[in-house]
């Protein structure tokens, strides 16, 4: 079966750096997405990786290793507004998105 | 530009009743999707449409139906609601161009409770 694994919850301090990991086992691979979802709101797109390596976008970076079935989202200079759930999703061989359950990130002052 | 709108925002429904959740996008995206989100689970695809006039079944289609008469609208119907359909429902759309261009954009969601 297809599976996306992420930690359920993480806690970090304002101003610090946090890394959220995602491992996947899917039938085929056509890209990996990270979304942010604040409580009670819709998911919003953060990043997309299809080739191995690091994609940097401001305070957020996303890394992919296709051979290891592994990605991480790196958030730098954490702000209170970064408190949210972070969703990892993989596009499979049928071009459908398979979603992880999300990682709830709690930022403490 | 509104993006994607969904209606209603929330609804409490008696079991056995019929309900249609509405979704409209103004981005002229080809593809549209319906997901449900339950606590502790990832988003699960219910139905999708790659282009107007076509629809397909996702991971959890039972008890739901969709139609895609035009590019903008993609309603989801629960023919006879059951309590297990209590969930938050998200509609999404994408340009369906493949690669980075095929990012899905989400509506604000409908919170449905079936009693």
TL;DR of this structure?
The complex is a heterodimer of chains A (109) and B (115). In chain A, 0% of the residues lie in helices and 57% in strands.
Protein described:
The complex is a heterodimer of chains A (109) and B (115). Chain A has 109 residues and is an all-beta fold. Helix content of chain A is 0%, strand content 57%. Chain A is built from no helices and eleven strands. In chain A, the strands form two sheets. In chain A, strands 2, 4, 5, 9, 10 and 11 form a six-stranded mixed beta sheet that branches. Chain B is built from no helices and eleven strands. In chain B, the strands form two sheets. In chain B, strands 2, 4, 5, 6, 9, 10 and 11 form a seven-stranded mixed beta sheet that branches. Chain B has a four-stranded antiparallel beta sheet with strand order 1-3-8-7, with no helix packed on it. In chain B, a hairpin with a 6-residue loop joins strand 5 and strand 6 (56-57). The mean pLDDT of chain B is 94. The chains are: A mainly beta (109), B mainly beta (115). Chain A binds chain B through residues 4, 31, 33, 41-45, 48, 50, 87, 89, 91, 95-102, and chain B through 40-45, 48, 58, 90, 98-100, 102-109.
Question: What does the secondary structure layout of this molecule look like, with pairings?
Answer:
The complex is a heterodimer of chains A (109) and B (115).
Chain A: E1 3-5, E2 9-13, E3 18-25, E4 32-37, E5 44-49, E6 53-57, E7 60-65, E8 70-75, E9 84-91, E10 97-99, E11 103-108
Parallel strand pairs in A: 2-11
Antiparallel strand pairs in A: 1-3, 3-8, 4-5, 4-9, 6-7, 7-8, 9-10, 9-11
Chain B: E1 4-7, E2 10-13, E3 19-25, E4 31-37, E5 44-49, E6 56-57, E7 64-66, E8 76-78, E9 87-94, E10 105-106, E11 110-114
Parallel strand pairs in B: 2-11
Antiparallel strand pairs in B: 1-3, 3-8, 4-5, 4-9, 5-6, 7-8, 9-10, 9-11
